[in-house]
Amino acid sequence: MGDQPSITRRGVLVGAGAVASMFAVGGVAYALEGEGRGLLRPPGAQDEAHFRATCLKCNRCETACPQRCLRTGVLEDGVLNWRTPIMDFHRGVCDFCGVCEDVCPAGSIAGAHDPAQVIGIAVVDRERCIAWLQGGCQVCVDACPYGAIALDDANRPVVDQAKCNGCGACENACPSNSYLAFAGGTDRGINVRAAGKEA
Amino acid sequence: MSDKKNSAPKKSRFRTARGWVAFACVAFVLAGMAFRVGIGTPSAFGIQQISAICPLGALETMVGAKSVMLHPLLLFVLVVVLIALVGKAFCAWMCPVPWLQKFFRPKKRGAAKGGAGHDAPASCDDSDAGFARAKSSTAGVAEACEPQIGTASGASCQKTRECVSVAGGEYANDAHGVTTATSECAAKEPAGGCETLPLDSAHTRAIFGSNNTEPAGKQAACVPSACAACAGASVCAKALAPVGGKRDGVQLDSRHAVLVGTLASAAVFGFPVFCLICPVGLTFATIIGLWNLVQFNEPSWALVIFPVILILEVTVLRKWCSKICPISALVSLLSNLNITLRPRVKTDACLRSRGVDCHACVDACPEQLDPHSGRIPECSKCGKCVEACPAKAISIKLLK
């Protein structure tokens, strides 16, 4: 070695091995990811390809969100979404304050100040909604700041998809399944789904 | 910064300072989560729109998204300026990897090969061990070790080390109060080896420590012809040329190949692949996982898988810092711009200027550099040379 800074044969092997492993990791992660999982991203981060390319997993938006509605992705969200920010309306409601966009160092979030951004669409779960099951509840209708939920003739909530931006106020307020954890998961009577994943 | 500039080498003051800085990083992350202020992690520490973005991450995202965005670009420029000011200081002062290496890979005496990066070399020219030995040995005895004699590995080098010391010498009671005991050492045969095995000064690596509180400090001096010195003849009388570090000057090595691979993989797959395995990111992801466990009662695989990857990276990939890390590669390229906060050697105070073949600074340097040489972009400002110098000739100075 001596004072020669040039790349040695050993160095070439080490470098090639490391690069090959990195491509292997990338390929496996890419293959495991599959098609869209319908994760709810912060407002203005709905272009999943751009978001995936730019998110550094720095944890700033999750901890900066004044509404606490961002959680940190876990392995179950997919290897590529591990450590990325995901909306969690059980914790809070998005008010489009734009702080997540401000703190994002990588330009992953664009336009979070604008309530016209569509995070997702609220979908009533008719098997869990108290109004649909037995009637008498209109918590979500009252909670929606955008008047996107109306009561039908039988006083059951119906979402106007054109008005809904997925802020999560309805899901956050929904009393159904709020205090329980059962085998059916944590879904409530009304849940925000990513656009295209409403079914 | 002022604590970095003071040249008085109180022992392990730098290490303590580095420990506090590392602790502060973790504290910042926890405070950011506890007080909801979004300080972030070392991937991007910051306040509001300003953050010290990971320069590698910034490049990866731009390559991955195949577009240049203004905000990340400005933050990247900010970080380049920071690196121009403090060089590779991130590696010694903020990166958790050296601490993990220390924790999961405690120093092994006589290990065959020196560790990489900030791990003190684990071979027989291990400076810390040298200090310890020197302290415990009788005053006036210094040890020198020749790792390259024959095919002897570090381990056998230790076993066969034999030192004969010659106390006194011309350098006793010199101006700096460093009492010198010259010593000559020959490896291989036990006692008496000195007589039969002349040392090649170019290969000799003397180890010594000094302790100014004792009447006789310990120093090793090398003499071109060992046998003559054994007889107490003399040490080299004129100034010696710098030893030179293995990694002085601009380095281009396997790390830079990994850097290219990091950017290429981000471009191919459309996401920052290296971030998935980055030990800095994973360390803090583990801390965040712990936080979420406590705060939200949310156990996660992060608490199992991230530590496993981290431990593999610091135990199997032993030379992570100096051979693999693409962050180190990028920062070292950028730190070619750095001229501030460098270790400077007071030439007249340096023992080499009086012919004592001291290379405590070179031996102590985890980056294998010689602070005497003009260009050391790999310097991580860890301060080990400052503390190792028996003549207190080295200090980290803001400018000159």
Which residues of chain A form runs of ≥5 with pLDDT under 50? Answer: 1-5
Q: DSSP helix count of chain A?
A: 7
The radius of gyration over CA of chain A amounts to 22 Å
Oligomer: heterodimer
Largest interface: A-B, 56 and 72 residues
Total count of strands of chain A: 6
Strand count, sense and barrel status of the largest sheet of chain B are: 2 strands, antiparallel
What is the CATH class name of the domain at 121-193 in chain A?
A: Alpha Beta
Supply the number of helical segments of chain B.
18
Order of H and E elements of chain A: HHHEEHEHHEEHE
CATH architecture of the domain at 121-193 in chain A: 2-Layer Sandwich
- In round numbers, the mean pLDDT of chain B is 72
Biggest sheet, spatial arrangement of strands of chain B: 1-2
Helix content of chain B: 40-55%
Order of helices and strands of chain B: HHEEHHHHHEHEEHEHHHHHHHEHHE
Output the strand order for the largest sheet of chain A. Answer: 1-2
**What name does CATH use for the topology of the domain at 121-193 in chain A?**
Alpha-Beta Plaits
Question: Could you give the distance between the termini of chain A?
Answer: 63 Å
- Residues in β-strands, percent of chain B: 5-15%
Query: Which structural class matches the secondary elements of chain B?
Result: mainly alpha
